[in-house]
Amino acid sequence: MDVLQLDVSGRPQAWITTREAAVIYASDGVAWTLGHPCQTLRGGLQRVTGRQSRIEVHPIIAVRGAVPSRAWRQAPALTNSKLFVRDRFVCAYCGHHCMPEDLTREHIQPTSRGGADTWMNCITACKACNGRKGNRLPEEARMSLLYLPYVPSLHEDMILRGRRILADQMEFLLASVPRNSRLHG
């Protein structure tokens, strides 16, 4: 289980392990938390009291101070796995729901014709439709898009990364995802 790390203002920063979160707790770096503790880590015995140290890790932690972040980028990194989740494993041309191994990253404007490898030029297509479209524009191939591409927000990107997300984490992230996002459906 991973912990959702935020900056002090609540902006998602990264998914971290519970051990990485424990280091932040131990160094008094946690500003605030959300959710019920999801794991308890136990340490050694205190010499004076004989009590065992323990840290209760919450599913969402906000870290004090400035945290270097990739989250300030304009657009999240594009990967096939995130693209397929964004598009719900549905081919943009035929509408069939497919297994990941039967899908491809389809460039609406082919890269060989100047198309960029970006969120706004890429959609999910089954291998058959991708092969049928070939090196043409959708209108040239007489294939229309069933849905339009979009650039995921920072909160959507954290969901698209394909981790096992706890209910508290999903509730927090979805609260900032636009209502028209496919992730709500």
UniProtKB/TrEMBL annotation:
SMART domains: HNHc
MF-aspect GO terms: endonuclease activity
UniProtKB keywords: Endonuclease, Hydrolase, Nuclease
Pfam family, one: HNH_5
Domain HNH nuclease: 80-131
PANTHER family listed in its UniProt record: OS07G0170200 PROTEIN (PTHR33877:SF2), SLL1193 PROTEIN (PTHR33877)
UniProt-recorded name of the protein: HNH endonuclease
